[in-house]
Amino acid sequence: AEIELDLFIKTFLSEFEQRRKEKNLRFEISVAGNIKVDPEAFKIALRNFISNSIKYSKNDGVIIIRTENNFLIIEDRGVGIPEKDLKYVTSRFYRASNARNYSGSGLGLAIAKHLLRKFGIDWAIHSKVNLGTTVFIDLGSIKI
Ligand code: ATP
Ligand code: MG
Asked: CA-CA to 144 of 20 to 30 Å: which in 1, 4, 82, 134?
């Protein structure tokens, strides 16, 4: 199915309203374009990225979701991931050393990786500890 990204993201984000409000976070959304992808599978991957951004953000933070150069970009200014941990975060059960105060099982990114790979979608995660984390999803790589 062809998905109108702006409506899809805005509708999808409503499921996080309670958690967003609890931490007084702000979503900044500027997405455009259409994609052809299995919406349910794509949501599972996105859900893991967004819930991480919420969980690892400090109160009163901002989460920016935007499209740029055919990438869907999810950016937070949360605790970030230490450089030594970054290459392991998509491994099952791996949690970075600075994630211990937050609950989780270390599975979300492993699931996202598995699903996105299934659809041939390239993505990357950049992070700087104490500054934040950004996920880049290459919308041009989606094959269906
Ligand atoms: P869950 O299985 O509930 O998702 P989790 O969030 O710990 O648990 P993943 O989503 O797989 O597991 O993420 C793996 C690790 O990567 C996290 O434990 C955390 O250390 C780090 N991480 C992922 N996303 C972020 C983010 N946005 N900000 C800071 N650290 C992150
Ligand atoms: Mg997670």
From this structure: 134
Q: pTM value?
A: 0.97
Residue whose CB lies within 8 A of the most ligand 1 atoms, among 16, 47, 52, 123, for a mutation test: 52
Residue nearest to atom 23 of ligand 1 (CA): 52
Cβ 115 under 6 angstroms from ligand 1: no
Closest CA to 52 of 116, 103, 1, 121: 103
Strand pairing of 123-128 and 132-138? antiparallel
**44 burial via Cβ count (<10 Å: 0-12, 13-18, 19+):** middle
Distance from the alpha carbon of residue 111 to the mean position of ligand 2, in angstroms: 10
| Phi, psi for 63 (deg, rounded to 5) | -120, 125
